[in-house]
Amino acid sequence: MSQPKEIFVVMSRCTACKTCEIACAVEHSGSKNLYGAISEKPIPKSRVYVEWVAPDGKVPIVCRHCEDAPCMHACISGAISRDDEGVVITDSDKCIGCWTCVMVCPYGVIGRHLEEHKAYRCDRCPDREIPACVSSCPTEALVYQTVDAFSSDARKDVAGEMLAGEGD
């Protein structure tokens, strides 16, 4: 089985512009465009959260699709499962809005759509080759790669920085 792709964050590149949040909400809207999405009822929700931690830390946080997903085990209606790609998904037709999944998520990334009384989470945009949050990021702080590819790129970046520091 091939290694699934994940959404990674290069925190040094994030400017907290929240473009990823907007792109995510628009992608999960009925209209799929910004002008249509802002007038939809219920208002489309983002599944990525850009958090700011003092003094100058900012980080986009998305569902990690945990291998041993606590939300999936806690879901009393069976609405949360894993697809063939390893993505943890929520079937909104089965969701009863009990919020148990919200309570057990260690990352706090399962949202409550109060108007629909349903839970929602990152689904990695199954109709797109690259998730909307990743493709919209102007600084490329969000990266959609396999673990091996991301790790390899990170090692190359560090090695390059170390070599550049030798000349000082």
Automatic annotation (TrEMBL):
<dbReference type="InterPro" id="IPR017896">
    <property type="entry name" value="4Fe4S_Fe-S-bd"/>
</dbReference>
<dbReference type="InterPro" id="IPR017900">
    <property type="entry name" value="4Fe4S_Fe_S_CS"/>
</dbReference>
<dbReference type="GO" id="GO:0051539">
    <property type="term" value="F:4 iron, 4 sulfur cluster binding"/>
</dbReference>
<dbReference type="InterPro" id="IPR050954">
    <property type="entry name" value="ET_IronSulfur_Cluster-Binding"/>
</dbReference>
<dbReference type="Pfam" id="PF13247">
    <property type="entry name" value="Fer4_11"/>
</dbReference>
<feature type="domain" description="4Fe-4S ferredoxin-type">
    <location>
        <begin position="86"/>
        <end position="115"/>
    </location>
</feature>
<keyword id="KW-0004">4Fe-4S</keyword>
<keyword id="KW-0479">Metal-binding</keyword>
<protein>
    <submittedName>
        <fullName>4Fe-4S dicluster domain-containing protein</fullName>
    </submittedName>
</protein>
<keyword id="KW-0411">Iron-sulfur</keyword>
<keyword id="KW-0813">Transport</keyword>
<dbReference type="GO" id="GO:0046872">
    <property type="term" value="F:metal ion binding"/>
</dbReference>
<keyword id="KW-0677">Repeat</keyword>
<keyword id="KW-0249">Electron transport</keyword>
<keyword id="KW-0408">Iron</keyword>
